[in-house]
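Exercise 7. Given the encoded structure of a 288-residue chain, write a plausible sequence.
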């Protein structure tokens, strides 16, 4: 039968006492009580049935057997510490937050491919309804957001530009020959500001913008409403690939698009050179 090995805590206590020559100093270094360190040394001596230290008024001195064990224990603990560092590097994680629509329509379909590009790094994601980068909570490493890339104190790595173009049901598109035909349709907005449609209309529309509007609180809801035939939404083809591929939605004016914003991976400025975040930027650019 294989004899059980001593605990690593006992070996740590032994090496500390051997190096410092004192139970009290070893206890302070290890953040343990002196009594606990003393018991761990006694347990080691009982385990090996040898005296490891010679006790004297000047301190603790290694016996010949103790000197031999010190060499072995020091190497073993160093090897275990090295493996711990290796294991922690292999099991890195990135805590990422992104808007729910972007998560559902762009990020999650690419997550398996992203993990293949980042072996050893686990991506932990959470979603929000906001595109405003906020690192007031310390549990986030980065955020994937839409905006202009200018946020004070933050580093923003640009991933891809936004291209917004009208999307609607195929049967509705049959009545749309020129942008002016949109005046008689219901326009679907992804937020209350209605800015995206206003920008698009200023660039391509004629006359006054359509009078009928439906306002949602997310792009996901706006795209869904358009797919159900409730009107015409402005969407980015990257975020509506499934509905465009299935024919639920079409783009009657595919060449007419606006793009005031872009998507960025944002992180606190001190983290811009983090190896794992640099790798994440490279991987996301590959999949964009």
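Solution.
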């Amino acid at each position: 039968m294989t004899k059980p090995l001593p605990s690593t805590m006992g070996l740590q206590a032994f090496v500390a006492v051997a190096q410092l020559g004192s139970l009290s100093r070893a206890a302070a270094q290890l953040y343990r009580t002196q009594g606990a360190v003393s018991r761990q040394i006694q347990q080691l001596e009982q385990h090996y049935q040898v005296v490891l230290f010679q006790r004297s008024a000047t301190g603790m001195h290694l016996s010949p057997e103790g000197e031999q064990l010190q060499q072995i224990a020091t190497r073993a603990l160093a090897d275990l510490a090295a493996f711990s560092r290796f294991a922690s590097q292999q099991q890195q994680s990135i805590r990422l937050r992104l808007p729910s629509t972007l998560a559902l329509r762009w990020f999650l379909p690419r997550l398996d491919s992203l993990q293949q590009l980042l072996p050893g790094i686990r991506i932990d994601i959470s979603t929000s309804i906001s595109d405003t980068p906020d690192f007031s909570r310390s549990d986030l490493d980065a955020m994937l957001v839409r905006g202009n890339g200018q946020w004070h104190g933050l580093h923003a790595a640009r991933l891809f530009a936004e291209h917004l173009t009208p999307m609607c049901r195929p049967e509705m598109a049959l009545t749309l020959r020129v942008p002016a035909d949109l005046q008689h349709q219901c326009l679907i907005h992804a937020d209350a500001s209605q800015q995206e449609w206003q920008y698009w209309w200023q660039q391509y529309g004629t006359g006054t913008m359509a009078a009928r509007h439906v306002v949602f609180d997310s792009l996901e809801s706006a795209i869904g409403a358009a797919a159900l035939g409730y009107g015409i939404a402005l969407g980015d083809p990257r975020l509506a690939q499934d509905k465009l591929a299935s024919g639920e939605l079409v783009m009657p004016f595919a060449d007419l698009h606006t793009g005031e914003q872009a998507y960025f991976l944002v992180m606190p400025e001190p983290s811009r050179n983090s190896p794992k975040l640099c790798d994440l930027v490279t991987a996301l650019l590959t999949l964009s």
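Remark. The chain has a mean pLDDT of 89. Students should compare their own answers with the one above.
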